[in-house]
Design goal:
Elements (H helix, E strand, L loop, with lengths): L10 H32 L10 H8 L4 H16 L3 H6 L5 H7 L8 H7 L5 H11 L8 E4 L45 E7 L2 E8 L29 E8 L5
Antiparallel strand pairs: 1-4, 2-3, 3-4
Length: 248
């Protein structure tokens, strides 16, 4: 029987094991981030032949680009605000929460924000940040969204400055050929981002057939279309600010 099979384990034992391993994983993750942060500060990736911690994680330890990016970002933030480490270890915060909070953390706000974000979901933390740090409304706009291949001078290049190599989208391993990068469009959907209490930014990606209807204005009413305006076959992207619960 495989050591990873659980079909023979009773329900109570399985739940107990699952709970214990989740607890251990949180503690292990906090310790891993503490080690990663210290390796980063000491630049111990250099003796191994890497110019950045990001490249070290991806190519030496075969982390995914996203995992490396997230762990480095959380480790650096936690070194600035050490209260994050125990909060990760006991499950009060997760890495997504830390990354959302990071741009807003200061010595004066860290303790209060970390406490307020305890056990909150990503959606709840976004709402919390919208209340504490309200953003201005977005303008209502319609723009063509034409997928295109990125070639030649727009292709990804290695980044000379190691500190900039944290972002996966800007990093290419040394010696990568200048080959065209094919951009694959993401399936369309509507996205709501909280801007301030009761107000959200709405982003809608739509096909030409669906976009024949006019986008709503800020109060949720249809905006008259301009006579003679044609929409591109590739589709349009609507952007607007809307009040929660607004109806015509």
């Amino acid at each position: 029987m495989s050591c990873y099979s659980r079909s023979h384990v009773t329900n109570d034992c399985l739940v107990h094991s699952f709970t214990a391993r989740v607890t251990l994983d949180r503690s292990t993750t906090a310790d891993l981030l503490a080690d990663l942060g210290e390796v980063d500060v000491r630049k111990l990736y250099s003796p191994a032949g890497y110019s950045s911690m990001y490249l070290y994680c991806v190519h030496e330890f075969h982390m995914s680009e996203d995992t490396a990016y997230r762990r480095i970002g959380v480790a650096r933030t936690a070194r600035q605000f050490p209260a994050i480490f125990p909060a990760l270890a006991d499950g009060r915060l997760n890495m997504t929460a830390v990354l959302l909070l990071a741009p807003h953390l200061t010595p004066g706000t860290a303790d209060e924000l970390l406490t307020a974000a305890t056990h909150k979901t990503k959606v709840e933390i976004n709402l919390l940040l919208a209340e504490r740090f309200p953003q201005p409304d977005m303008p209502t706009l319609i723009c063509a969204n034409t997928p295109a291949a990125v070639t030649g001078e727009l292709a990804l290049r290695p980044v000379a400055e190691p500190s900039l190599q944290l972002a996966p989208e800007r990093v290419v391993p040394s010696g990568a050929p200048d080959a065209p990068v094919r951009m694959v469009p993401v399936p369309g959907r509507t996205k709501l981002d909280p801007l301030s209490p009761g107000r959200y930014a709405m982003r809608l990606r739509s096909s030409r057939s669906r976009s024949s209807r006019s986008p709503p204005d800020r109060a949720g009413r249809a905006v008259p279309r301009t006579v003679g305006t044609s929409l591109p076959k590739s589709g349009v992207r609507f952007g607007s600010a809307m009040a929660a619960g607004a109806r015509s």
